[in-house]
Amino acid sequence: MGIFGRIREGLKKTRSGIMGRLESLFSRNIFDDNFFEELEEVLIGADVGVETTLEMVEKLRRLVREERPGEADRVVEMLKGLMLEVLGEESSGLNLAAEKPTVILVLGVNGVGKTTTIGKLAGRLRAENKKVLVAAGDTFRAAAIEQLETWANRAGADLVKHQQGADPSAVLFDALSAARARGSDVVICDTAGRLHNKTNLMEELRKVRRVVEKALPGAPHEVLLVLDATTGQNALAQARVFNDVAPLTGLVLTKLDGTAKGGILVAVARELNIPVKFIGVGEKMDDLQPFNPTEYVDALFSPLT
Ligand SMILES: Nc1nc2c(ncn2[C@@H]2O[C@H](COP(=O)(O)OP(=O)(O)OP(=O)(O)O)[C@@H](O)[C@H]2O)c(=O)[nH]1
Ligand SMILES: [Mg+2]
Fold first, then answer.
1. Over the stretch 113-129, which tens digit does the pLDDT of each residue have?
2. Does residue 300 sit within a domain?
3. Where are the alpha helices (DSSP H) in 47-167?
4. Closest CA to ligand 1's atom 9
């Protein structure tokens, strides 16, 4: 299956949730107040976000009033165009440092998919022939370190780890020294999503960021926040909290395959002003894809069968 097929497959739940309703709505071929109201309901129901939906549907109303399209397909094209406008340009991908190593800090609350994303990302970079080192900065649980080790082996990446309970900053400090000694191109740092209380976590992450910055001037080159698409609008609140701890350079939206509300991507793009760099559409190595707005919209509006 090609990339487009994977994304289409990953959006299956969203498509059958939203598109089932949209298809019958559009097939009536009547674009009156009822149509626009129902369209609003469908989009809000898919987690596109209230403000974003109202704005898009208002623009669609205007376009339809001006152009008076004869057929539903044309209106669908208009809606896709408006959605693309909200999603913006395709991200230029990872910001790689001019001088190696590039340091990527991966943040997010527990369970969103940080470690899995790091494994998949390491795999992608290895496929581009880059030397990758992953750092087990989540020392909260022993299982977290083992999980990262499994992914590192699978991806063919080096690993730097300490014991469970060790100081995460010390792990990352060692990882950066190791990366320089071994000539790694990219260091990807896992972090904890949970400590014994939340305030501590944010303080810890602030410290982690400072240590990385000190250990390698210019680093971190990317601070990626992982968001779980199944948590809906709560993802927006998480992004605001983390952005305050360490300015985010990109977002990764995981588990798009696990939700019928994949419209959250549109809300995130519109309300956060931070590029969505990757999307996760499954648990396997090749289920992390660079986010391409055109592909996403085409997949979302592609026929159900
Ligand atoms: N379906 C699906 N599952 C995913 C995706 N990304 C991650 N997962 C699953 O989500 C679960 C949690 O992923 P982890 O990578 O362990 O999450 P984490 O953020 O590292 O969690 P903590 O280390 O506990 O903070 C695992 O079972 C993953 O396989 C995705 O894109 N789709
Ligand atoms: Mg983890």
1. 999 999 999 999 999 99
2. no
3. 50-67, 72-87, 114-127, 142-155
4. 113
Q: pLDDT per residue over 270-300, tens digit each?
A: 888 899 999 999 999 999 999 999 999 998 8
* Residue 135 phi, psi dihedral angles, 5° rounding: -115, 125
State the total domains in the chain: 2
pTM: 0.94
Question: Which CATH number fits the domain that encloses residue 76?
Answer: 1.20.120.140
Using most ligand atoms within 8 A of CB, pick from 110, 116, 259 the residue to mutate for ligand 1.
116
Q: What is the CATH number of the domain that holds 190?
A: 3.40.50.300
Domain boundary among 26, 57, 87: 87
* Mutation pick for ligand 1 pocket among 110, 188, 190, 283 (CB with most ligand atoms within 8 Å): 283
Q: At what angle do helices 142-155 and 114-127 cross, to 10 degrees?
A: 20
